[in-house]
Design a protein that fits this description.
The protein has about 300 residues and is of the alpha/beta class. The chain contains eight helices and ten strands. A ten-stranded mixed sheet has the order 7-6-5-4-3-2-1-8-9-10.
């Protein structure tokens, strides 16, 4: 088994080199706002209800999509809207409709608070293709400690039920695993299965923003192994497709806790436009890793 895995990993390494040369854009993240109606303890962007960085006008981002259209296949370039909380923007439907008309599939990541049935229907009519809803605890206490918002657990569950019940909509549930929820993962799994969730993405905290100095967010080595074993066992069980996030090479757990070997596609197939116009390979890469700014540089050239 180990020999077979090593052979696959070696072949995949060659595949990664070929993809780096191909260098086609398949995912474009837009950090549409730094405003957020929550106060999450792990927030890498350190977002707030009101932020000193104003929302990027939708016209500025849509111009980027228009400019790169001759260089990409829009139908194979997924636009993912992040924040902050994207649903605090009132023009999301207008933006989505413009993207849809240009041929780009689009989706967003949400805490679920503002995803009423009425808002979901409105977004679907604007061409919405995919949604990720965050759920970070089996109990109200653990989720709302993490998210900093009373009532957020039930709102997230309601949002998950709505997207799960929408035919044709791609969706998943994302959980940030930490010391306060790791021992409830089995119960959380059972709850998601009961809600008929098919895809569940688990990840560990990225140590930046508010997260970098909070010891409750960082798993010990033993806890990390516990998480890997849980995901591997859940995948074997087959009731829900659990996957670990894109962070890092996982040695013996490669190909056992996610669908393919580790491949960071940031800057190869993935690009990001941050709220202030900065161009980055990935929304998690900021500061020194910024490659330019749409207000000063040509996005496609960068």
């Amino acid at each position: 088994m180990r020999l077979r895995k090593n052979m696959i990993l070696s072949l995949y390494h060659e595949h990664k080199k070929a993809q780096a040369k191909l260098h086609n854009l398949t995912y474009l993240f837009w950090e549409c706002t730094l405003r957020c109606n929550f106060n999450c303890v792990h927030c890498g962007s350190d977002c707030a209800k009101e932020n000193i960085v104003p929302d990027m006008p939708k016209e500025d981002f849509l111009k980027i999509l228009s400019d790169i259209r001759p260089h990409v296949n829009p139908h194979k370039t997924m636009v993912v809207i992040t924040g902050g909380e994207p649903l605090v923007r009132k023009d999301l439907e207008e933006t989505g409709r413009e993207m849809y008309n240009m041929g780009y599939p689009w989706g967003f990541v949400t805490n679920g608070w503002g995803l009423s049935q009425e808002r979901l229907d409105s977004l679907l009519h604007a061409g919405l293709r995919s949604v990720t809803v965050s759920l970070d605890g089996y109990t109200e206490e653990s989720h709302e400690w993490f998210r900093g918002k009373k009532g957020s657990w039930l709102r997230a569950l309601n949002a998950i039920s709505r997207v799960a019940g929408t035919p044709g909509l791609k969706y998943d549930v994302a959980t940030c695993v930490n010391k306060k929820n790791i021992n409830d993962l089995h119960k959380l799994k059972s709850m998601l299965v009961s809600l008929e969730v098919k895809h569940w993405r688990l990840f560990t905290v990225f140590p930046k923003g508010r997260a970098k100095d909070n010891p409750l967010l960082k798993l010990s080595t033993e806890e990390f192994v516990q998480l890997m074993e849980f995901i591997r066992d859940t995948r074997k069980e087959g009731k829900i497709i659990a996957s670990y996030g894109c962070e890092g090479y996982l040695a013996d757990y490669e190909m056992e806790v996610r669908d393919a070997p580790f491949f960071c596609r940031a800057g190869i197939h993935i690009a990001s436009v941050l709220a202030n116009g900065d161009i980055s390979a990935c929304p998690s890469l900021r500061g020194d890793y910024v490659q330019g700014n749409i207000y000063k540089d040509n996005f496609w050239t960068v």
